[in-house]
Amino acid sequence: MELNSEPLKKILSKYKFRDVAIEELQKLNRVYPDLKLKTGSYTFSDSTQRDLLNLVGNIPVKYKGHSYNLPIQLWLLDSFPFTPPICFLRPTSNMMIREGKHVDAKGRIYLPGLHNWDHPKSSVSVLLEEMIAKFEEDPPLGMKSTGDGKDPNELLAFVSHLNITEGGNRPDKGVNKVSVIGGGDLGMAAVLSIMAKSPVDKLVLIDIPESSTKGGTMDLEIFSLPNVEVSKDLSASAGSKVVVVTANAWSEEQSYVSVVQTNVDMYRRIIPSLARLSPTAVLLIVSQPVDIMTHVAWRQSCLPPTHVIGAGCNLESERLSYVLNIALLANKSDKQAWVIGEVSDNKASGSKKFTLSLLTPCRGLEMLKGRGQRSWSVGLSIADITHSVLTDQRKTHSITTLAQVSHPYCGVCCCL
C-alpha cells in the first residue's frame, strides 16, 4: 500500500492520529494487499464535504459453492482508527443492490462491528471478516436481469434461486413488527406487555451496551418465547412499525435532568440508525426525561413530528380515570380524565368532567399505594399506546408530542 504519494501525505497530515492511522493501514495491507488507498471528497448527510482517505477493492464471498468478488469502498474519517469507517458497496453498471438487513438502498453497509467499534479491539481487518461472513449469509448484490432468458445461475447473488428466510431480507410490509430498544426490567416489561396485548407478528428486544438498564435479556434467550428475538444489533429492528426506546443512561442515584447530555449522546448513536432501518415506523420514546428526549429523538431522526411520540402522561391519565370512576361509580367508557404537563410532580389534571373535590388527595394516594413495581406499570402503558398505533384504534392518549404542528407558540415536545 503506497503511502508516500503527495496527495496521500497531504490528507494524512490532517488526520488527528496520523501515526496510529499509518500503522493500522500497514497492518491492513499485510492481510488485504489488494485494497487500494485513494483520496477523495466525501459528502456528508448535511451536504458538507471533506477530503478523506478511502480504501477501494474487492472482498471474496462464497455462496452455494461459487466464489464472487464484491466491490467495496471504505471512507476513513480524520479520527481513524478511533472511529469506524463509512462503508459502501460499489456496484458496477450491470449490478443491482439488494436492500436488506445490512445494506440500504444506496449501498451503505451497516454491521454490528461498525456500531460497536472500539479501537484497538476493532480494526478494518476484523470488520472485513465480519462483512464477508454476513454477505455469505445474505448476498447484497445481484446482476441486473437482461430479460433474454439466460440461465439464472449467472446472477451474482442468485436472485432467482435465493431462499427468502427470516432475517436479513426486506420484511413483509404486512407484518406487525415491534422493536424494543433497551433491556432491564422496563424493556422486559414492555416486551411481555406488548406480546400479551397487541397483535404482534414479531417482536425484537435489542439490549444496547450504552444503556444502564441491563439484565433479563439472557433469560429471554434461555426461555425463548414465540415470535420474540433477542439481539444486540440495531439492524435487527429493520422494518418495524413501532420502535419503543426504553434505554436510559441514568442510575437511581441521579435525577432525570442531570443525565440529559449522557442520554442525548446515547441517542446520537442509535436514533439515526433506527430511523433509517424503519423509515415509516412510529418512534415511542420512554427514556427520561421523556419530554426532552422525545424532542431530541425527533431532531436526530429527521422523521415527521407525528412519527415521534413520548409515553407522556398516558399512565397517569389512565390511573386517574380509573380511580375517579371507582370513586364516583362512573362508567369508565364514558368518562376520561387527563393528566397533562411535564412528566414530573408539576403535571396537573386536565379533566372537566369530574368534581375533583369529591376525592381527597389522601384518598387518591391510598388507592394508588398498591400499584406495584413501576416497570410493569410503564410497560403496560407502552403496550396500550403500541396497541393503538398497530390497530389504528383512534383512541386518545396523553402522550408527549411536538405541539408546534398545531400550536405555533410551542417549540419543544410537551405532554398535552
From TrEMBL:
InterPro entries assigned: L-lactate/malate_DH (IPR001557), Lactate/malate_DH_N (IPR001236), Lactate_DH/Glyco_Ohase_4_C (IPR015955), NAD(P)-bd_dom_sf (IPR036291), UBQ-conjugating_enzyme/RWD (IPR016135), UEV_N (IPR008883)
Record domain UEV: where: 2-145
Lineage: superkingdom: Eukaryota
GO molecular function, one term: L-lactate dehydrogenase (NAD+) activity
Coiled coil: none
One GO process term, biological-process aspect: lactate metabolic process
Protein name: UEV and lactate/malate dehyrogenase domains
Organism: Astyanax mexicanus
